[in-house]
Amino acid sequence: MRFSDKVAIVTGEARGIGKAIAVRLAKEGAKVMVVDKNPDTPKDTVEGIKKDGAQATAIAADMTKAEDVHRMVQATMEQFGKIDILVNNVGLFTFEPFLDTKEEWDRLLTLNLKSTLLCSQAVLKEMVKKSYGKIVNISSDAARIGVTTMGSYSAAKAGVMGLTKTLAREMARYNININCVCPGLVDTQMTADLVAFAPEMKEKMIKAVPFRRLATPEDAAAAVCFFASDEASYITGQSLSVNGGQAMF
Ligand SMILES: NC(=O)c1ccc[n+]([C@@H]2O[C@H](COP(=O)([O-])OP(=O)(O)OC[C@H]3O[C@@H](n4cnc5c(N)ncnc54)[C@H](O)[C@@H]3O)[C@@H](O)[C@H]2O)c1
């Protein structure tokens, strides 16, 4: 199995893409720290993983708060003794015309970019000691192609891509790979909530995809697990779109 003896933290794992990543990593042998700000739902992810015979523990923590991030790293070290893989998955998008945007900038930059900065710094301190690590950041195709009414989100996710490249350069000397997965539109609860008010928008989005379907969380998880594996040991600072061909780079 690709992740035998590996310890992984995935942030925002109660549902959606994060849950699919946690389940896939565990299926392939990883011990997983399941992190979500929602204190109840991570237990579902953990129980599902344990039913399949793998190891997982849940912690309720808010990845935008330094003290919670520190607590998460400490809990992982106490439970599993090391951290090999970090997936910075926490994030949120909303639709708002740029000229109307005020407070949303701070909220989206904090959730998408600051959480990635905080978690990366805290976990890298442990990875550097072992001279081993894989970080996979979840950005978005919105950062690569631009999406009308997603200005703050696109800016935050472009920040995640910039951080990925810089950290990839700084951390290569410690044998640490840092890459980015950029999903197109994925069929998750967050997407369902947002398009509920305009079903025709979803149809339009699907028509723009050559495969004529949204991505599944598992499509994104497959790309994340590739970057998290030793098969990608000579790949760093890269961004991979998982978008059904909607945009080609
Ligand atoms: N859904 C899409 O179409 C899509 C497309 C491109 C990129 N993405 C990105 O993928 C990632 C996951 O998206 P999703 O659709 O699965 O989201 P989701 O809302 O379905 O799940 C996100 C999870 O993160 C948790 N969470 C939110 N804020 C948190 C915080 N501060 N600390 C800890 N946990 C927190 C939530 O409780 C939730 O369980 C995000 O970064 C998102 O921007 C999503």
Task: Give an account of the 3D structure.
- This protein is of the alpha/beta class.
- The protein has one domain (7-186, 217-239): 3-Layer(aba) Sandwich (Rossmann fold), CATH 3.40.50.720.
- It is built from 9 helices and 7 strands.
- It has helices at 16-27, 42-51, 66-80, 104-130, 141-145, 151-171, 189-195, 199-207, 217-228; strands spanning 7-11, 31-36, 56-60, 85-88, 133-138, 176-183, 239-242.
- The chain has a 7-stranded parallel sheet with strand order 3-2-1-4-5-6-7, sandwiched between helices.
- Helix 2 links the parallel strand 2 (31-36) and strand 3 (56-60).
- Helix 3 (66-80) packs parallel to helix 4 and helix 4 packs parallel to helix 6 (151-171).
- The protein is globular.
- The two termini are 32 Å apart.
- Nicotinamide-adenine-dinucleotide is lined by residues 11-12, 14-18, 36-38, 62-64, 89-91, 93, 111, 115, 138, 140, 183, 185-186, 188-191.
- The site of nicotinamide-adenine-dinucleotide (NAD) has 28 residues, from helix 1, helix 4 and helix 7.
